[in-house]
Amino acid sequence: MKTAAIGAGLAGSIIVTAIHQLLKNTRADAPRMDLLGVQSLSKITGIPFKEARQSSVVYYSTMAADVVVNGLYYALVAIAGKKKAIASGTILGAAAGAGAILLPGKFGLNVAYSNRTTQTKLMAFGLYLVGGTIAGAVYRCGSK
Questions:
Q1: CB-based contacts of 144: which residues, under 8 Å, 6+ apart?
Q2: d(CA 44, CA 49)
Q3: Is-above-0.85 flag for pTM?
Q4: pLDDT number for residue 58
Q5: For residues 57 and 133, what is the distance between their CA atoms, to the nearest angstrom?
Q6: Are 23 and 125 in contact (CB under 8 A)?
Q7: Contact 135, 74 (CB under 8 A)
Q8: Of the candidates 124, 131, 115, 109, which has an alpha carbon nearest to the alpha carbon of residue 35?
Q9: Helix 85-102, helix 3-26: angle, nearest 10
């Protein structure tokens, strides 16, 4: 995978994480994608969720994994090429946003973290849409 693609993917991923952190600290109805991540890791490792939620090691491991995995996902903007990178990123972001809303229940996770209210759903969708669009724009500007 090209360095420019990975850089663009990480830029989109970091934006998602930064906006999420801002929202969760300022809005009661913000999506809690961090808690979905902790809950996922809890299920995978067998650590009880209450214990995992209180562990800074689990929390920061989840955050790091989110940045890396989202970054690799958003790096896919390169597949469409430089000219279509923004459109590609927007599509990737919309798909990730839809997944954030539609998939937690399918995996036995707490749907309220991304579905609590209409505003929560819109913010969850928007987080990933913005991340994908940013990744596409960074790739378009940064690739040769």
A1: 4
A2: 11
A3: yes
A4: 85
A5: 31
A6: no
A7: yes
A8: 109
A9: 40
